[in-house]
Amino acid sequence: MSKHHQLITILGGFALSLVCTTSYAELEEEVQNVIHINASLDDDEDNSIYPENWSDRKKILMRSYNPAQDSSQDYLNNSRYFVINGQNAVRYFPLSKKTSPALLYTEVGGKNFFALVQSYGTSRQVINISSQLPHHLKDHQLFSIQPHGKNIVLIFRSRYFYSPKEIQHNTAFSQSFSSYLYRSSYELIEVNIAGKILHRTQFTSPFLENGMGFGPSMEENQVLEYTTSTPGNYQTAKPYDIEYKYLYQHGKLTKHSNKRFLSVSERVALRDDKAGVNAELIEDEYREMHRNDKAKPSSCLQDFWVYHDKAAPKEVNWGNPWIQRQPALLQTFKKEYESGKTYTWAQFRQRYCDLSH
């Protein structure tokens, strides 16, 4: 069986068999809370003054729209999407802006599937994330993708359920921690834009964690910084938190910590001990509710990026519903795609998008 057909089999059956053997740079420590909430202040997105808020349909119809200037189309911050045979949705990220880049597949058929893939899926390297804590595993997630000099760092987060004893410990500090259900660990995988793995680094976050941030350091060049804090001692005249900082640079990870005394307003907040709203749990509930939903069809704008990136395997059926209803045009679409032809957005829009109002 060819490599191409092996990938199609994986996309249909999710047979994940590759074991990564890259060595780990480990740090023995011990996380919690990440929030991803999509919200819009516009009741009608198409009335927004900001093009990035428009529906794909409006973007396609607007001749002046340029996806290269649309922040919602940024290649490292927003996943791209196609649907095979109207059933299996695939999400991925390109690793560069160039035509036919190396890709990171992140989801197939509604399930996490992490793999570095080349054009048309002709070769792949499955990324297996391992648990770092003995706790019951909730899931492995792609947390973020960060530029790192000429390379890219793929940041994966693993979530674990707190034990009943740990939940009791959390609540003893404050009722606001009672809704915190997960501990976390991270794995940073540094790759070049060709999709070659250069470094793999793991760490677990402190327990109990109260807020966090992950991104480029404001103080040092080409350094990624993870900052967080955990309650120190609140039953004292001068209550304090312990702040942690993890610094990553090209395979090397260092950890720093210091004691920070709470401000007057923070001490007052401790006395107003109420359970908080955990947006992460709300998102988990939403995803669980929609787990078995039918795959949403792609738009012509999404198809443009797949065409540009050569992200879909050859000899599979994909494309938006409008082009699926036109057999002759669909055959031309597939033939040109598989031959490696490229189009600008203006050309692609005119040739392969429904421009009727």
Tell me about this structure.
The chain is α+β, with helices and mostly antiparallel strands and 357 residues long. It has one domain. It is 23% helix and 30% strand. It is built from nine helices and 14 strands. The protein has a five-stranded mixed β-sheet, with no helix packed on it. Strands 2-3-4-5-6 form a five-stranded antiparallel β-sheet, covered by helices on one side. The protein has a four-stranded antiparallel β-sheet with strand order 11-12-13-14, with no helix packed on it. The longest helix has 13 residues. The N terminus is likely disordered.
Helix content: 10-25%
- On the 0 to 100 scale, the average pLDDT is 87
Q: How many β strands by DSSP?
A: 14
- Structural classification: alpha+beta
Oligomer state equals: single chain
pLDDT < 50 runs, ≥5 residues? 1-10, 12-43
For the biggest β-sheet, the strand order reads 1-10-9-8-7
Sheet-strand content, in percent, reads 25-35%
The 3D shape can be described as elongated
Main sheet specs: 5 strands, mixed
Structural domain tally: 1
Computed over alpha carbons, the radius of gyration is 23 Å
Tally of DSSP helical segments:
9
Cα(first) to Cα(last) distance is: 45 Å
Q: From N to C, what is the helix and strand string?
A: HEHEEEEEEEHEEEEEEHHHHHH
Task: Please outline the helices and strands.
Layout: H1 3-13, E1 25-27, H2 56-61, E2 80-84, E3 88-94, E4 103-108, E5 111-117, E6 124-126, E7 137-148, E8 151-161, H3 164-173, E9 182-191, E10 197-204, E11 212-216, E12 224-233, E13 240-249, E14 252-261, H4 264-271, H5 279-289, H6 300-309, H7 321-324, H8 327-339, H9 345-352
Parallel strand pairs: 1-10
Antiparallel strand pairs: 2-3, 3-4, 4-5, 5-6, 7-8, 8-9, 9-10, 11-12, 12-13, 13-14
